[in-house]
Amino acid sequence: MGDTHPPVFLGDRAQIESDRFTLTGAEGRHATTVRRLTAGERVDVTDGNGLLARCEVIGVRPGELELAVIARHAEPEPACRVVVVQAILKGDRGELAVELMTEVGVDKIVPWAAQRCVARWRPDREDKALTRWRSTAREAAKQSRRARFPLVTEKAETAGVLAKVAGAARASLVLLLDPAAEDRLADVELPRDGEIVLIVGPEGGTSESETAEFVAAGALPVRLGPSVLRGSTAGAVASALVLSGCGRWHD
After folding, report:
1. Rounded distance, CA 107 to CA 145, Å?
2. Fold of domain 80-250
3. CA 105 to chain centre
4. CA angle 67, 71, 72 (to 5 degrees)
5. DSSP secondary structure code for residue 172 in this structure
């Protein structure tokens, strides 16, 4: 393993602020039994909120990794934050969407129960489904070496999404992905700060009533290009365009 790309683990902020600490629990077990790390190797440990410690392994025990901090880096919050309201998808496509958006760099993901969603999170299974989305985001964030992990919120109904669009905490810009829209996302002038919200519908698209309500609340319908993407990939592609357009990928 090269020092340029050491593995990333999730740790407690108080530990990371110490000069030496022991990585235990699920992360410690993964480090010792799956990654089989040994003394002298380098690892990065982050709290998922911007603080990252570059460490050297100084001791290994079953399920525990003893680490010495070499350096720390605090990543500031981005001026432009990207939020994706992602319609719930069937099968494992929802987790795929979360994985791709996390790797791209999305800051917040809101599961949305749209009218045309084929999949529904039943009340007795909602916690399990949400746990899968959050676990997927956490692992994808570690894999893509993020110091700030995305927040996966509780499920939102359309009324809640509308409140976000038109409420007191109004975003700087709200974009509704619509393959029939006149405007292209690539042509939209994006703000350099504030919150940009992307609304991604299910495979069947947003309903006419949902579209009308979002537009009335201030959302701008945009299309990605000549081809129509799946609900599991559209959010990641749109987010990449937004992150590039608002300057995040040029820092």
Report:
1. 14
2. Alpha/beta knot (3.40.1280)
3. 6
4. 100
5. S
Helix (H) or strand (E) holding 185, with range, is none
d(CA 222, CA 155): 24
CATH superfamily of 8-74: Hypothetical PUA domain-like; domain 1 (2.40.240.20)
CA–CA gap between residue 192 and residue 248 (Å, rounded) = 9
Q: What does residue 81 show for φ and ψ, rounded to 5 degrees?
A: -105, 140
CATH 3.40.1280.10 intervals, the chain: 80-250
Do residues 197 and 175 make contact, with C-beta atoms less than 8 angstroms apart?
A: yes
* Alpha-carbon distances of 139 from 30, 62, 150, rounded to whole Å: 12, 22, 11
Name the CA radius of gyration of the chain, rounded. 20
User: In the numeric block, which tokens belong to residue 96?
Assistant: 């795929």
Arithmetic mean of pLDDT, 9-24: 94
**DSSP letters of 41-65?**
-EEEEE-SBSEEEEEEEEEEETTEE
Q: Name every residue whose Cβ is closer than 8 Å to that of residue 77 and which is 6 or more positions away in sequence.
A: 50, 148
Instruction: Enter the pTM of the model.
Output: 0.91
Quickly tell me which residue has 């992990």 as its tokens: 149
pLDDT tens per residue across span 26-45 = 999 999 999 999 999 999 99
> If phi over 0 gives left and psi between -120 and 50 gives alpha, with beta otherwise, what is residue 244?
alpha
Given phi > 0 = left and psi -120 to 50 = alpha, else beta, which region is 59?
A: beta
Q: What tokens appear for 148 in the block?
A: 């700030």
